Amino acid sequence: MPDSVHSLTVAGTTYRSRLLVGTGKYKDFAETRAAIDASGAQIVTVAIRRTNIGQNADQPNLLDVLPPTQFTILPNTAGCYTASDAVRTLRLARELLDGHALCKLEVLGDPHSLFPNMPETLAAARTLVTEGFQVMVYCSDDPIQAKMLEEIGCVAVMPLASLIGSGMGIVNPWNLRLIIDQAKVPVLVDAGVGTASDAAIAMELGCDGVLMNTAIAHAGNPVMMAAAMKKAVEAGREAFLAGRMPRKYYSADPSSPTGGLIGS
Predict the structure, then answer these.
(1) CA dist., res. 261 & res. 30, Å (int)
(2) How far apart are the C-alpha atoms of 40 and 258, rounded to whole Å?
(3) Are strands 13-15 and 8-10 parallel, antiparallel or unpaired?
(4) Distance CA 253, CA 231 (A)
(5) Three-state DSSP class for residue 134
(6) Contact (CB, 8 A) for 207 and 176
(7) Model pTM?
């Protein structure tokens, strides 16, 4: 299969994998690196408010395990509940990463569901785009608000499949398809993937990629699950491009020819 089938272009840069992975919730940095290697991901997302990438000089630095020379670090605003907190966090990340512009914006509505606060998300996106950030944005599966984020200038929209960390998979494929059908920027499922079949379904629907963390980090064997997710994203993409057969309810269609049967 040509590399172009599985490559993802975001903000003018092409990556060899359509799977993006998080770096939290692993037992240690060694497991983090092993799982990310197994996933084949080039883009790894880092929660700036929870992970040390240089802001705490006396603590282990994730960038020693995942150097920016090998991976694209995608700083995110996990744990932010206001636009101002999210903007402040990403300004800090840009300083720590020597002017790196690509980022993941998420502004949460409450600590229980972790559902996005869309008014605050839109406000933060406007500010960040104006300041030159390349914003990949976590959002609700509302096609109207997803389009608004695209029109603001976000380089990718990332609707949730279901609640963060829930593992419930894609609970509303119809809204997801509406977002995909109207988007002119990449659409990536973010949040809710629980296992490989969920990732494959997202890709079969036409998503450009999938971002996940908990589904890998909290698996019984994170490294094996990371490898499974890599295969699922690739298989789903190929199935989408191949085009599935039409569904034919109440209509049998033998897989073998019936003409020329003995005795007919």
Answers:
(1) 61
(2) 45
(3) antiparallel
(4) 30
(5) strand
(6) yes
(7) 0.90
Side chain identity, residue 34 = A
pLDDT score of 255: 65
Coil, helix or strand at residue 89: helix
Residues 196 and 201: their CA atoms lie apart, in Å, by: 9
| Annotated active-site residue in 104, 147, 230, 231 | 104
Task: Count CB-CB contacts under 10 A for residue 83.
Answer: 22
The pLDDT score that the predictor gives to residue 106 is 96
CA distances from 51 to 48, 71, 234, 257 (A): 5, 16, 29, 60
104 has catalytic annotation? yes
**Regions of the chain with pLDDT less than 70:** 1-3, 54, 251-264
Half-sphere exposure of 90 (CA within 13 A, CB side): 32
User: Which amino acid makes up residue 183?
Assistant: A
**Encoding tokens for residue 12?**
């003018």
How is 22-38 classified by DSSP, letter by letter?
E--S-SSHHHHHHHHHH
Q: What's the rounded Cα separation, in Å, for the pair 166 and 126?
A: 29
* Residue entry with tokens 């980090």: 217
Report the pLDDT value the prediction gives residue 108, as an integer from 0 to 100: 95
- The pLDDT tens digits of the residues spanning 190-242 come to 999 999 999 999 999 999 999 999 999 999 999 999 999 999 999 999 999 99
End-to-end CA distance of the chain: 42
Tell me, what's the pLDDT at 50?
A: 78
Q: Which amino acid, residue 25?
A: K
Burial 86-123 (b: 16+ CB within 10 A, else e): bbebbeebbebbeebebbbbbbbbeeeebebbbebbbb
Short-list 22, 49, 35, 78, CA closest to 214? 22
